[in-house]
Specification:
323 residues, alpha/beta, eight-stranded mixed β-sheet, 8 helices
Length: 323
């Protein structure tokens, strides 16, 4: 009997007491047929006999793995309120504990300060210490690192997500929807540009926290495979966070990565985390709450493609324009 799904989860404590949670999900039937295909492709005839070419096998396998899987690490963590040095030190230790190979490391919204409205005090330029720190971490881990921070540009403040590559090149996304309950719009300037980045063979739509509530902004025009949210989302509305992550995945037929902080901030607002990776079906691939944790997940491009081809709900969506 061929297995449909095989799931493996492991948990361990790292030296800095941050729990690591990993999950690998794959189809047993796909692995069976793929292994057979690889054997045939990587074999050749020598003196009338079939000979196995190990180097060709490894080269083909690595090529397939590079296109097929996106390996991610989500750093769900407490943040030191408005203390950049403490946050850098803490995050460095957590990032250093990531020993497995990953393509993407995700940090929370305003990872260097917490969700602060003191932009004049903590804002940096794009050449500031937080951006330089991200560049150093990305180079060290040879992975993309992303998270948002406070940026000043042309006398305006932005809650800006930085997408930092290992070679020092970067992309940016300015938070579109500013959180009215915290009067974020009184301090920061809203972004107006949708941002989709490429990583390996994956198209990733970048979003920040409150953007999650607005489906038009996240609407899939068949131009991305994954939505990514970094957040400081309070526990008191945690049910909304969990429901909306699933809704965005289902309606856009995509993976959704949601990384939220944990712990109390400087305003005594508690955050439960509830970070998750959601599949296009709405089912969670991995999730964690109420603890510092590093969540690992491997996203499958072929699984997403198969799901979209089988159901194709988004092909029946209504077309509209905003006047």
């Amino acid at each position: 009997m061929k297995p449909d799904f095989v799931t493996k989860k492991t948990e361990k404590r790292s030296s800095h007491k941050c729990k690591e949670i990993s999950v690998t999900v794959y189809r047993g039937t796909e692995i069976f047929y793929f292994a057979s295909l690889l054997f045939l492709i990587s074999s050749r005839e020598v003196e009338g006999k079939l000979a196995f070419d190990c180097s060709s096998f490894l080269q083909f396998f690595r090529s397939f793995d590079n296109m097929e899987f996106l390996n991610i690490a989500l750093v769900q963590t407490t943040l030191h309120w408005e203390d950049k040095a403490a946050n850098f030190a803490m995050l460095e230790a957590q990032i250093a504990s990531i020993t497995q190979a990953v393509d993407l490391i995700v940090l929370p919204e305003m990872f260097s300060t917490g969700f602060s409205m003191k932009a004049a005090q903590f804002a940096e330029s794009m050449n500031g210490e937080s951006v330089q720190w991200l560049a150093a971490m990305a180079k060290q881990k040879q992975a993309v690192i992303t998270g948002s921070l406070i940026i000043e540009e042309e006398d305006k403040y932005y809650n800006r997500l930085i997408w930092m590559r290992p070679d020092g090149s970067l992309e940016t996304y300015d938070k579109r929807h500013l959180f009215r309950l915290a009067k974020e719009q009184n301090t920061y300037t809203a972004g107006s540009v949708r941002k989709i980045v490429m990583l390996k063979n994956w198209r990733i739509n970048l979003q920040v926290c409150y953007d999650l509530r607005f489906p038009v902004w996240a609407r899939n025009r068949e131009d991305y495979d994954c939505l990514l949210y970094v957040a400081n989302w309070p526990e008191r509305r945690g049910s909304h966070w969990k429901a909306l992550l699933r809704a965005r995945a289902i309606e856009n037929m995509c993976y959704v990565i949601g990384l939220n902080r944990v712990g109390d901030d400087g305003n005594d607002i508690y955050h439960s985390g509830d970070s998750a990776v959601i599949q296009a079906s709405g089912a969670p691939l991995i999730e964690a709450a109420h603890q510092d944790a590093i969540l690992f997940a491997s996203l499958s491009k072929s699984k997403l493609k198969t799901y979209r081809e089988r159901f194709g709900f988004y092909k029946d969506r209504d077309e509209f324009s905003i006047l």
